[in-house]
């Protein structure tokens, strides 16, 4: 009888002698041990069940430990999610089944190593991936904790709504991410062209691959529109008053630095609101972090800026027109590396909820705003021009303009005092050009409300 005959039973050839013996009934199955693990789980924690499993493993009590592991995996990993939530102070943390299995194997490996053993010594047991270790960086954990199934479903629906312009930009940026070739892009589009919609799709596409996307914006309000959004100053540690020599506060080995190193894509919305030194500070810091010697900007990362140079630019106290231009993003040495991608179609006009008259009025207003931004009003001009605002956009009451604005937006005083619907206030706001105007209008509005005025200091 040959060795091959020993491994064959009922015309089935088994790879190992142990499998052949198990098929012949020479070896007992592990059901009794599996049942014991189940019974122990009734009154013990998952950590105790793992201890018992390791004891069975090291004593060679299990004939097919890999099958026992598969059967009892839920019991062995029952506390993993809770432990990670408690460790990181993240009550809403959700782990996938694969992540729970990985962390359970890591805990089993720790127990084995304490006794001088390892999973690698058991041929049939699953092996840990190379360099497998729990994520201890809470910032990375947060970026990997999205509901990927829901995100993928939303992405697949929304991608069908993209315009041809948006799809072309989407494909180019995703291609740069997948090929890991880096790149600096600027998506130029006026309000309503779907830049936020594009950020949502780009971040979902990359995150669904298990990669990290950092979504940032120049202002706090703009960052709230992005999933996982943060201000650029907060995310990158940009100095408050950067200059041509500044760098970001990103110490090597810190959680924030390691998060940025792991990022596959960085999105920065409303970028023209920042001075060029902010971007140059980030460029210097990323080159240092990534050890970049290839002369690629931002350490070879794929970074996408967005915004509209027609809108609010950066603020420099007492600066003239020339100083403002020289401090702009497109005056930076980085601009020569930047590929500008344009959006021109107003997505708000494509809404199904607009009547014909509403769509017409919105189109006329959008075209007028765009003409103002492009300097096409009162041409020819050298950048200074008098702009006549159409009367339908004005409140024509010179006697008491503040009261007129208040009444137009919020109604009369009696209605305002009786209003209890929070949505009414969420849908209304009075925008002011200066802090002095803000304080004036706030005082006026507060004087209309009942109750005693309290100043908190």
Automatic annotation (TrEMBL):
Domain of life: Eukaryota
Enzyme Commission number, as recorded: 5.6.2.3
Catalytic activity: ATP + H2O = ADP + phosphate + H(+)
Keyword entries, A-Z: ATP-binding, DNA damage, DNA recombination, DNA repair, Helicase, Hydrolase, Nucleotide-binding
GO term, biological process aspect, one: DNA repair
One Pfam family of this chain: PIF1
Ranges of residues in domain DNA helicase Pif1-like DEAD-box helicase: 162-382
EC class (word): isomerase
Cofactors, names only: Mg(2+)
Any one GO molecular function term: 5'-3' DNA helicase activity
Family membership noted in the UniProt record: Belongs to the helicase family.
PANTHER family: ATP-DEPENDENT DNA HELICASE (PTHR10492:SF101), PTHR10492
Protein name, entry field: ATP-dependent DNA helicase
